[in-house]
Amino acid sequence: MADEVKLTAKSFEPLDRSKNLDSEKISAPNLTFMQDAWRRLKKNKSAVIAMVILILFFIMAILSFFPSVLPHQPNAINTQYANLPPKWPGVDINGVNGTLVQGGSRINAYAQAGAASNVHFWLGTDYLGRDLLSRILTGTRISLTVAVVATLVDLLFGVTYGMFSGWKGGRVDNFMQRLIEIIMSIPTLVIVVLLMLILKPGMWSIILTIAFSSWTTMARLTRAQTLELKEQEYILAARTLGESPIKIAFKHLLPNLSSIIIIQTMFTIPSAIFFEAFLSFVGIGIPNPTASLGTLLNDGQKNFQFLPYQMWYPAIVLSIIMIAFNVFADGLRDAFDPQTKE
Amino acid sequence: MKLSSSLKLGAVAIASVALLAACGSNSSNSGSNKQVLNWVETANLPTMDPSKSVDNVSARTLNNVDEGLLKTGSGNKVRPAMAKSYSISKDGLTWTFNLRKSKWSNGDPVTAQDFVYGWQRTAKPSTASQYAYLLDHVQNFDAVNKGKMAPSKLGIKAEGDDKVVVTLSKPQSYFKYIVGMSAAYPQNKKVVEKYGNKFAANAQSAVYNGPFKLTGWTGTNNKWTLVKNNQYWDKKNVKLSKINFQVINDQQTWLSQYQSGKADEIILDGTQFKNFKNSKELNKRELASTFYLDLNQQKQAIFKNQKARRAISMAINKEDFSKNVLADGATAPKGLVSTGLASRDGKDFADQAYVKAGTEYNLAQAKKLWSQALKATGKSSMTLNLVTDDTPAGKKASDYVQNALSKLPGLKIEANNVPFNVRLTRSTKGQFDVLVDGWIADYPDPISFSSLLTSTNSYNYGHWKNSQYDTLVKNAEGKDANDTGKRWNDLVDAEKILMQDQGIVPLYQKAQPQLLKSKVKGVEYFTTGAQFDFSHAYIK
Amino acid sequence: MAKYLGKRIFYLLLTLFIVITITFFLMKLLPGTPLTNEQKLSPEQRELILKQYGLTKPVWQQYLIYVAGIFHGNFGTSFQFSDQAVSYLISSRIGPSLLLGLQAMIVGVIPGILFGALGAIKKNTWVDTGTTIVSILGISIPSFVLAVLLQYYVGLKLGWFPIADWGGFAYTVLPTLALAASPFADTARFIRTEMVDVLNSDYIELATAKGLSRMQVIFHHALRNSLIPVVTIIGPLAVNIMTGSMVIENIFSVPGIGEQFVKSILTNDYPTIMAVTIVYSVMLMVVLLITDIIYGVIDPRIRLTGKSN
């Protein structure tokens, strides 16, 4: 059955030391966790593309702080040019040539409004003649701010809360979960209306309310996952070896929670943006005349049949951002997760 | 590319839907000539109690299922209803109504006692009727309404079963409109007492004396139906067999329902109006409703200065706002009293009382006046808040007025776009600097507007005060009440004073352009109150 | 288990009581009064109406009266609909919301699981990319935009389903689809992520090594172990969707509770806010309890009862 291994006398001779000195040396550079993740992320082409798109959007959003780089003042009213469709210089294709269908026939809206031939609104205008492109750019900034801050709260507070609750278990867990239940049980809108009373209505109070109500899901997710993870052998091993709980949390729990955390983050971002849109829908969103993607979508939705571009463009921008975020997050997840094998 | 093709497709689809709808109506025509009207409301029916109705929706439904002594119709003309005739005493204080023979939907006769009971019920404080004040000219109303006198002391008496005699405490020339409103409807005592506080809380717990009766309303649902009332005295002239009401909140949905033939009418918004401007189905409905800015003198001392108020007015281009921003047929107002509400000797009230400076747009002059006013306060800049409600028109006003006023030197405007109810609260509590406020006339008489700005009126949110104005309005309601010419002049003069002193800043006069399927004929429209009467409508 | 359950139900009631108390006092901080058109009231009448609703009493008395009322099933009278009991308002309007929510959960979650599992099994193939993009679109398009698109293209142009209104299954199709996008996307994304992890773990390799068929491995081991996060997410999501979406109900003219609830908050209709909050929190807490129990069923390693040490 078994192969016979033939051992000759030569097999027992020591190797030439000078030749094989490096056999124990690790030839690859010693990578930290982050370096390793970055290396893996770079290999994922779609994630890199998504990252570039996101960086572009962030740059555009930051640039929109300086109104001089925008094609028009985002809040400047020019009622003469109200509800003009997109017009690109030199392109004569329906949809971007400044014509639209009104009362059943296609008309040149720019001519009707008495606009000079050098007047161009790349993405059209809204009912006050405000430039939609400029408003989308500033709106993106507002929406991204809302989303990013809400996400940070989610990450810092929600994850910590969830891990602590799950790790401690027993009475502490019980108490902390009931607390979450209470917070979840009070309708968010009630909290929003109240916070608007205390704070000045505006972006920061909206961010605060979104943050206040969104971290609970993250906490519950990490807690559920922690409950499962802490019974695993490697955690047991780490405990037995006397690792401190903080160290276990960072070195063992967090990497294994990363996929859940990243995916949940991907939900927090759109839900924060949508919740802001919902607040505008019921009339307590970002105050005039500031635009956000949510308010733009909201306004656009009202005239979809006749002025479809007013809904399509904000929706497209929002979708691109979301898809980029998600693809990037998938890449990140694969890069971070210690269980992912190559 | 893709977008343009979808646009084209859209046009084709709209055309084909229109065709289909046309086919649909044709086929129903060729059938048994179905007399069914499909109407849309934008809010639920909150109550059917004539004493408690305060909103448009219930006013409209009540106007078609119940009937008062008289009834307002097209052109705000009053016609006989439950009363076949009436007479007024020389001093204008005693009104005698002769009732016709008519029945409730349950077969009970409608008697003079039903009117006495209905009015007493509206007036007595425990009913807490919010429209009770409409009866404030009726003798002893105040005492009854405050609970200091028994309801039976109210100035309305039944003489036999078919004569109602009303005694007023002071003459009221427009009382004929009041008696047609729901607060003055007859009420069947037996039914009201049978259901107690569930009276008129659903379709079954009420009786009706109008052209239709209500069915299918559970008290909280989104749909209800009016069917022809066979007990109605004039039933032979009622041609519709059914009116289906449905609640639609979304403007886009409403249009789709209209285009697909599920709804027979739609009130258009600005963009839709533009697209149907040449439609044969378009009816430009005017409304006796003015929207204006209240400037809070109690909170901001600068508004005590007429120059500051004038500056605010002159900085806003009302023509531009109503024509280009609202763009739904709304017009620039001439003053507080809406155009087309009342006229005398062929001259419209608003035209006669027109003060150009009160509504004109002149930014250069506005800047000058504002600088002067600001200087007088010793400040170099100030921030004011602008409170509007979150209706679509409210949002537009907020955007536009904020932008316009920000052009004044040293003025920063903070816009607060709040839910409707919150706006009301903030109005009454005075928590605003500048408020976009609106008023719809209850009846076609200028006093419905003019009384708002007297110094003691609770709707005078800006606390503008002018003793001359107060005197003129008081005279119109008091010593000149029986002299139509004098009364008219009092009110015209009052309006002129209001505009010269810029007590308020008129913003726009509301309109509601309506598409009505061309097969629907005979719908009566009037600019105040319930606005629609279907009793003579029919489907062709 | 029975002891654990009893304990949890006790906590549930306790939490509910706290929620009622907090909400009640928070609402007293809301601005405004509930009178729909308070401009047209004389001060005497205003006083009378407030008195009628018991709003002139000190707040603590109102609170006691309210709590006592709950025990008798009396949630007060709605301000939006005069003379309608709040319990009637809710019971007559919650049906459509529950139905739509339930349908949307079914239509969303089941394909979501399939899509997610498919993506994980066929990881890094075009199937994976395809399912991922579809589910990402599900997250990134707001429900009201989806609703408008469905209504315009499927309802008006194609004429396949009613545009709006209520009355029969056909009327529920478009709102259900618009609502289902979110549970669909959530489930698909979580299942894919979890399953990729699970498929990499040792026990799956062991199961494969034991000679179990691919199907058995996926359904018995992989899927089951991927459900934890989905279960965590789905519960509250279901409650949220079933208690009505104002936006969707508005667009499709559904006579549900969602719009009434938003309106009640914006118009300070205290009794309605309170009642809906109670309904909402009871549903939520029951769902959370069920979730915790399901955790144990799915993964016996999770111990809820004792201390871990």
UniProtKB/TrEMBL annotation, chain A:
BP term (GO), one: protein transport
Membrane topology: Multi-pass membrane protein
Membrane spanning stretches: 47-66, 142-167, 179-198, 260-286, 311-329
A cellular component annotation (GO) from this entry: plasma membrane
SUPFAM superfamilies hit by this protein: MetI-like (SSF161098)
Subcellular location(s) per record: Cell membrane
CDD domains reported in the protein's UniProt record: TM_PBP2
Name of the featured protein: ABC-type dipeptide oligopeptide nickel transport system, permease component
Organism in which the protein naturally occurs: Secundilactobacillus kimchicus JCM 15530
Chief location: membrane
From TrEMBL, chain B:
Gene Ontology MF terms: peptide transmembrane transporter activity
GO biological process terms, semicolon-separated: peptide transport
Limits of the Solute-binding protein family domain: 77-459
Endpoints of the signal sequence: 1-21
Gene3D superfamilies reported for this sequence: Dipeptide-binding Protein, Domain 1, Dipeptide-binding Protein, Domain 3, Periplasmic binding protein-like II
GO cellular component term of the entry, any: ATP-binding cassette (ABC) transporter complex
Domain of life: Bacteria
InterPro entries: Peptide/Ni-bd (IPR030678), SBP_5 (IPR039424), SBP_5_dom (IPR000914)
Compartmental location: Cell envelope
Pfam families in UniProt: SBP_bac_5 (PF00496)
Transport keyword on record: yes
Sorted UniProt keywords: Peptide transport, Protein transport, Signal, Transport
CDD domains in alphabetical order: PBP2_OppA (cd08504)
Residues that span the membrane, as ranges: none
Family that this chain belongs to: Belongs to the bacterial solute-binding protein 5 family.
PANTHER family: PERIPLASMIC BINDING COMPONENT OF ABC TRANSPORTER (PTHR30290), PERIPLASMIC OLIGOPEPTIDE-BINDING PROTEIN-RELATED (PTHR30290:SF10)
Protein name in UniProt: ABC transporter, substrate-binding protein, family 5
Protein's organism: Secundilactobacillus kimchicus JCM 15530
TrEMBL record, chain C:
Any one annotated GO CC term: plasma membrane
Domain (ABC transmembrane type-1): residue spans on this chain: 94-291
Pfam families with a match to the protein in the record: BPD_transp_1 (PF00528), BPD_transp_1_N (PF19300)
Membrane topology: Multi-pass membrane protein
Assigned keywords, A-Z: Cell membrane, Membrane, Transmembrane, Transmembrane helix, Transport
InterPro entries per the UniProt record, alphabetical: BPD_transp_1_N, MetI-like, MetI-like_sf
UniProt-recorded name of the protein: ABC-type dipeptide oligopeptide nickel transport system, permease component
Organism: Secundilactobacillus kimchicus JCM 15530
